[in-house]
Structures are given as structure tokens and as C-alpha cells.
């Protein structure tokens, strides 16, 4: 533009700023994220899908995400999101394991530890 209009020409930055002002946007605010837009709602994370995924994992701890996705009818990415974020599972040695122990699991561990402790005292005394 400076070659055509000379030194009295405004900069590209100023033109862009004016365009934002005329559109009703504040030029001092920088928007780093996408704005909300209408579109298809997320239907893959509904309660029914979460319950199906949880039921499949509890039935078979070695089930793969691909198998779950095919059975439930949602994408592998949504299955991964439900498994890790919503339900709190993680994969340990090819098995789905809950991130936190349930009350039943804690009681079972306590029983096993007391049995081992009793057995170890019997072996030590013998």
C-alpha cells in the first residue's frame, strides 16, 4: 500500500484494528480459544454409554477400547475419554484398573494382609 499511497498511508495493523472495532469487538481483547458455535451436541458421553462402557470393563478387565467402541457404537476417542476422565480407569499391564480402591477392595486387602501376617508369625515361631 505504501508504494501506491506513499508515506501518508496507514498500516495494515491499524486497518485490522478498525475492522475489529466496526464489527463490535474490543481490539484490546485477544481471543485465544474458539468461540461457542452451534453444532451437533456431544451425544457420545451420555449416561447410557457410560453405563455400558463401565459394565463391559467390569465384566472383562482385558477388553480393548476398539471392542468397546464397536459394541457401544461410539468412537474410540470417546471411549478413551469415558474410561480415563469420566470413570477414572487406567490401563495397567493390559487390564483396566480403577484409579482409586473401592471400600470392598480395601476390606479385601485388609483381610489378605491379616491372613499373611498370621501365617508369617506361625512360620517364624516354628
TrEMBL record:
Recorded superkingdom: Eukaryota
InterPro entries: Transposase-MT_Hybrid
Protein name as it appears in the record: Histone-lysine N-methyltransferase SETMAR-like protein
Species annotation: Plakobranchus ocellatus
Amino acid at each position: 500500500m505504501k508504494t501506491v499511497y506513499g508515506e501518508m498511508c496507514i498500516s495494515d495493523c491499524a486497518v485490522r484494528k478498525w475492522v475489529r472495532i466496526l464489527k463490535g469487538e474490543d481490539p484490546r481483547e485477544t481471543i485465544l480459544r474458539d468461540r461457542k458455535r452451534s453444532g451437533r451436541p456431544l451425544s457420545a458421553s451420555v449416561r447410557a454409554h457410560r453405563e455400558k462402557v463401565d459394565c463391559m470393563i467390569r465384566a472383562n478387565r482385558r477388553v480393548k477400547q476398539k471392542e468397546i467402541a464397536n459394541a457401544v457404537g461410539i468412537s474410540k476417542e470417546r471411549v478413551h475419554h469415558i474410561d480415563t476422565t469420566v470413570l477414572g480407569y487406567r490401563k495397567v499391564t493390559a487390564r483396566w484398573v480403577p484409579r482409586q480402591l473401592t471400600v470392598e477392595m480395601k476390606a479385601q486387602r485388609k483381610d489378605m494382609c491379616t491372613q499373611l501376617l498370621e501365617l508369617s508369625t506361625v512360620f517364624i515361631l516354628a
